[in-house]
Design brief:
single chain, ACP-like_sf, Acyl carrier protein
C-alpha cells in the first residue's frame, strides 16, 4: 500500500466515510463527519498509520485533506501514490 493509499484509508476510517466521498474536497467543519470529535479521531488514525505525533499547534493547521498531506510531509512522511 502506498503512503497516499494509507492516508486515504486513515481518512476514511477516522471519519467513517463512504467509499464514494471525494476526499480531496474534505474540509474541517464542512461535513457532519469532520466535526471536532471526528477531527480527533482522524488525527489518532493518522498518527497510528504513520507513526507520527501531531501536537496541538499542528492540529489547528490540519483543516483540509490537502493540509493534512502538507503536515505529514513536514513531519517527514513522503506521501506518494
Amino acid at each position: 500500500m502506498s503512503t497516499l493509499e494509507a492516508y486515504n484509508k486513515a481518512f476514511k476510517n477516522g471519519l467513517e466515510l463512504e467509499d464514494d466521498v471525494v476526499l480531496e474536497d474534505m474540509k474541517l467543519g464542512e461535513s457532519t463527519e469532520w466535526d471536532s470529535i471526528g477531527h480527533m479521531t482522524l488525527i489518532a488514525e493518522i498518527e497510528d498509520a504513520f507513526d507520527v505525533y501531531i501536537d496541538s499547534d499542528e492540529m489547528t493547521e490540519f483543516h483540509s485533506y490537502q493540509s493534512g498531506i502538507a503536515l505529514l510531509q513536514r513531519l517527514g512522511v513522503d506521501i506518494q501514490s
